[in-house]
Amino acid sequence: MALRRIRRNASRILVISLATCGLAAAGTAAASAADEPTREQLLADCESGEGKCTFNDPQIGEPYLGNFQQVSDTLYNCSTSDSTKKLSWTQKVGSTDSVGVSITVGGKIMDIVDLSVTASYGHTWTRESTESDEQNVTAKPGEVAWISRAQLMRDVSGTWQTHYDSPKWDHYFWFVPDTISSPAENGTGGKNSAVVVRSRPMTEAEKASCEAGGKAVFAK
């Protein structure tokens, strides 16, 4: 019976290891933190190919809106009447893991996730999204305005299994749970990304720049 060991570290995600031999054991000895790899070390081995990795039992969550981000220049209205200007916007959103680290789109990690999702659900996993457009933006006198966008996102949760040809950290297998957050296409789950125009009153410094610049309306 394979020995299974579980250890929890406050500064790291739960890591589970399978023993290197098939001998039965009455119990497990608690290893020090130095005996166990960090989550980053395991995923680095997956990326480099030193570890033979799979992303097991993928579970896809419901789509949701990510955080709003400013995606355009800012329109400054130093005049005494409303001002409308067409602003272009662009937003590029990639994938991140459970600790917010960006995942390289063309790397092995995303290839493994894509393969796992495709095998389980019959469709590929969106890795990144770049959207661009233009829109009229109106700023009231003494205000600044801009375009913000929230990308539709979706998470897939699973467990990384790392297999080594020779024991590493005294084991052939290591497991670490993870959640990958990636952009989703509009219409997924009946939801769409959101684009809004936002504004606020100018700061005193911005008002001073209006006077110094001599322009009634400008975008930057």
UniProtKB/TrEMBL annotation:
Q: Which UniProt keywords apply?
A: Signal
Span of the signal peptide = 1-33
Its lineage opens with: Bacteria, Bacillati, Actinomycetota, Actinomycetes, Kitasatosporales
**Record bears the keyword Signal:** yes
**Keyword Signal: yes or no?**
yes
- Organism whose genome encodes this protein: Streptomyces coffeae
Q: What is this protein called?
A: Uncharacterized protein
